[in-house]
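BUG: 3D viewer hangs when loading the predicted structure for this chain

Environment: internal workstation, default settings.
Expected: structure renders.
Actual: progress bar stalls at 90%.

Input used:
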Amino acid sequence: MTDTHSYLLALSARIVGAHVGNNPVGTAAIPDMIRNVYRTLAMLGEGRIGTSLDGNHSFEEPKPDEATVKGQKHTKKNNPYVHPTYGQTVFGDHLICMEDGLSMKMLKRHLQTVHGMTPEEYRAKWGLSDDYPMVAKEYATLRSSLALQSGLGLKPEDRPGKPSKARKGGRSSGR
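C-alpha cells produced before the viewer hung:
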C-alpha cells in the first residue's frame, strides 16, 4: 500500500465519518460512500476532475439506491427543498443550517443570533426559493396544535376549557 493510497483512504474515511455523524445514512451505504469519496479524491489528485468556482463538478454524482433511502422519511422525489450542491437540508423533524451544518427545529433564530443574517439574506446567499422553510414541518404542526388546544387566536368566550369570568360592577373595594 503506497503512502498516497493510505492517505486518501484515511481522508475518505474521515470525510464519510463526518457526513455520517451529521446525517441519517443506512449502514449498507457506507462502504460505497467511502469508495466514491476515495475515487473522487484520487481523480482530483490526478487532475482528472475539473471544478469551477460555483462548485459544479465535471462528473455525475452517484444516485442513492433504494436501500439507502428506504428508512428516510423524505427523499429527493418528495422534497422540493433539495439544494443542488449540498443535498437535502429540510427534513420533517429538523432543518440543517448550510452555514455550519447544525441540525435544528427553528432556523430563523439561529441565523439571527449566530450568523447575524435574516432569512432573506440566507436564502439569497444559498440560492434558495422564497418559500424555503425556516421551521421544521413537524415542529410547526406541533406548535400549531398546542396553540389551538390552548385557545390562542380565539375570543375568550370561544376558548375551550374554563368559562370566562364575567366582571361584576365597577372597581374593587380595596382602595
